[in-house]
Amino acid sequence: VQLQASGGGSVQAGGSLRLSCAASGRTFSRYVVGWFRQVTGKEREFVAAIWRSGATYYADSKKGRFTISRDNAKNTIYLQMNSLKPEDTAVYYCAADPSVIMSAMTSSHSYNYWGQGTQVTVSS
Length: 124
What we know:
- The protein is mainly beta.
- The chain has no helices and 11 strands.
- The strands form 2 sheets. Strands 2, 4, 5, 6, 9, 10 and 11 form a 7-stranded mixed β-sheet that branches. It has a 4-stranded antiparallel β-sheet with strand order 1-3-8-7, with no helix packed on it.
- Strand 7 (66-71) and strand 8 (76-81) form a beta hairpin.
């Protein structure tokens, strides 16, 4: 599967952005999909994941502000980000894998397929 992330940009604190992750492949609905973000010089950080069933999981600091969703008919995963803060500034990556296990879904090593990343910049 190939992933294409888009939707990043520059916003002021308190603003919103919706990221998209478009995937190729007819079996994408079988994949667990996660969003990660990375700041230069730091490790890639888990943001959210959505399961095959549609169940969603979030890093604690993102709960209530970020929403992950999937449209299997369009082979697309979305990350709606509201109430953005300057500390949300990062490159955001979508990742997918059919074999992610629940206990390891926050680890970037669990995902073998990655999009190219999209920059999100939040100014104060």
